[in-house]
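QA checklist item 7 of 12: single-chain prediction sanity check.
[x] sequence parsed
[x] length recorded as 32
[x] structure emitted
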Amino acid sequence: MIDGREYLVSAENTRQSLQSAASQNIERLAGV
């Protein structure tokens, strides 16, 4: 069982990696 703090850290890391991947995909599509 993970506590709330670990869950929040995990969720934040996931969000950042998704955001990073999304911006890379957008740049690739835009040909930047």
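[x] summary fact logged: The two ends are 43 Å apart (CA to CA).
[ ] second reviewer sign-off
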